[in-house]
Design a protein that fits this description.
Strand order of the largest sheet: 1-3-2
InterPro entries: DUF3375 (IPR021804)
Order of helices and strands: HHHEHHEEHHHHHHHHHHHHEHHEE
Number of strands: 6
Number of helices: 19
Organism: Corynebacterium urealyticum
Helix content: 55-70%
Distance between the termini: 81 Å
Strand content: 5-15%
Shape: extended
Protein name: DUF3375 domain-containing protein
Number of domains: 3
Largest sheet: 3 strands, antiparallel
Length: 478
């Protein structure tokens, strides 16, 4: 245990000088469904909590939020991940951090008595264990017949006396027992995820060091064998995940959750306990989904690592490094003098080494910004030139409005084509688009279509067929 005090992050976290602050911050940030948090959000949340702790306590917290987060990653309290396709890093609690926080939570809200619910859970689990490990057929049949008789007896009793439900106090006790089990699940999920990552690391290390044959692993990949999923941690999680995703089981779980939340005893639970029960399924879905994503991602990565022959390159590099280290140790044991020939030849790389004295240092004075500034005299504004520049970048709505009103005033009504015939598109396609926009806003849809024509500044003519709209009255100011 003395060695564990220094090697296990959970123990080190509880022994830390500022342990109360660390535990308070991490438990407050990573609560409820906040299992994985973006780096920017984590920094803001931690900074705000640090300010509150400094104001309300005498704890010395001199570092910034970013500095503390980096320290917590190094100490093993947080795991930092960079998901593929994401520009931001994400953080989550490590298994050791979960263990430390759970321990403190037990100190805050201890289990004061041995409840009937907990004893019943223990007894039922022991019964199930004894039954499911008993190979005797006669005893198995006898147990099932006894269960059948008990069920029939309960049915007969309900028909005679009605349904008997447990008291609200006992229901609250059982609900809190369920919550106690549910609070352990994030730690379990985190532990499974770390075990899966350790399996991936060990497989890669074995491949690189030659303990595993890359050809054999590649054969397994082609035969569909997933080495990570087939590990002990992978099989345990997949069994849970398949059960959780089973349509029939999911349907039953949703129905049970709806039924429990509709019961009167729920009102006797605290607000936080009610929220925990309401979010139980979402928590299971989110946490298990993260583990499943990690497991499948690591499996694909290992498959690519082997298929791309990257493993062979890493093996060659490892062999070269090990060989160089062995030769260096041999030379060190012999006590070679600096001027003595060692008998080894080194192949030079394509990059030629140069002396530091040949480098030219950067002189900041060469890039000094002059304080003097040349001031140009102000000139007169050419409003016509400014108008032309505006026309080049924006639709001239005033010109289009005048054109529409002119044709409507002379003919009583006008289509888009008729407006363009009387007033050609001076801005090319932009004028046509502007007329279509005004037609949708102020015109009326008519039957059929019509050909719209315009000319570009280069002189090339274009035409397009569009729905027929009619302006029956003049267009007001746009």
């Amino acid at each position: 245990m003395i060695r564990l005090a220094d090697s296990v992050p959970a123990w080190a976290m509880l022994r830390a000088h500022n342990a109360p602050a660390v535990l308070s911050v991490l438990s407050a940030v990573f609560e409820g469904s906040n299992r994985q948090i973006a780096g920017s959000d984590l920094t803001l949340a931690v900074e705000s909590l640090l300010i509150d702790i400094r104001e309300q306590t005498n704890l010395e917290l001199p570092k910034s939020a970013v500095a503390y987060i980096n320290d917590w990653v190094k100490l093993g309290y947080l795991t930092r991940r960079s998901p593929q396709g994401s520009r931001e890093e994400f953080y989550e609690l490590t298994t050791d951090a979960h263990v430390a926080i759970d321990y403190v939570q037990q100190l805050i809200s201890p289990q004061r008595v041995v409840t009937k619910s907990r004893l019943g859970t223990l007894f039922n689990n022991l019964q199930d264990l004894a039954a499911e490990t008993d190979p005797d057929e006669a005893r198995a049949i006898s147990r099932l017949e006894a269960q059948r008789d008990q069920i029939q007896s309960r049915i007969d009793n309900i028909r005679i006396n009605g349904v008997g439900v447990i008291s609200d106090e006992e229901a609250v006790e059982r609900a809190r027992e369920i919550l106690a089990l549910a609070r352990d699940l994030p730690t379990d999920f985190s532990r499974v995820r770390e075990e899966v990552e350790n399996v991936d690391h060990e497989l890669r290390e074995s491949l690189v060091e030659g303990q595993l044959n890359a050809g054999e692993v590649l054969d397994n990949v082609f035969r569909g064998v997933d080495l990570i999923a087939e590990s002990e941690a992978g099989r345990a999680f997949n069994s849970f995940y398949e059960l959780f995703l089973d349509p029939e089981q999911s349907k039953q779980l949703d129905a049970v959750m709806d039924a429990v939340q509709s019961r009167d005893f729920m009102k006797q639970l605290g607000p936080e306990e009610q929220i925990e029960i309401a979010q139980l399924v979402d928590m299971l879905d989110s946490s298990s989904g993260q583990v499943h994503t990690s497991l499948t991602g690591l499996s694909r990565s290992l498959r690519r690592f082997v298929q791309s022959r990257e493993a062979e390159s890493q093996q060659a590099l490892t062999r070269a490094i090990n060989q160089a280290q062995q030769q260096a140790l041999e030379l060190a044991k012999r006590g070679i003098a600096p001027y003595e020939k060692v008998g080894y030849e080194l192949e030079l790389t394509t990059r030629q080494p140069t002396s530091l004295s040949s480098w030219e240092l950067h002189n900041p004075k060469e890039y000094r910004i002059e304080r003097s500034m040349e001031v140009n005299e102000s000139g007169e504004i050419d409003f016509e030139q400014m108008r032309q520049r505006i026309r080049e970048s924006e639709i001239d709505w005033q010109e289009l409005r005048v054109a529409i009103n002119d044709v409507v005033g002379s003919k009583g009504q006008a289509s888009i084509r008729e407006v363009l015939e009387e007033h050609p598109a001076t801005q090319g396609l932009a004028s046509v688009v502007g007329l279509i926009k005004l037609a949708h806003d102020h015109g009326e849809r008519s039957d059929g279509t019509e050909i719209l024509q315009w000319e570009r500044p280069s002189g090339k003519r274009y035409q397009a067929r569009y729905e027929r709209f009619v302006f029956r009255r003049k267009v007001g100011r746009v």
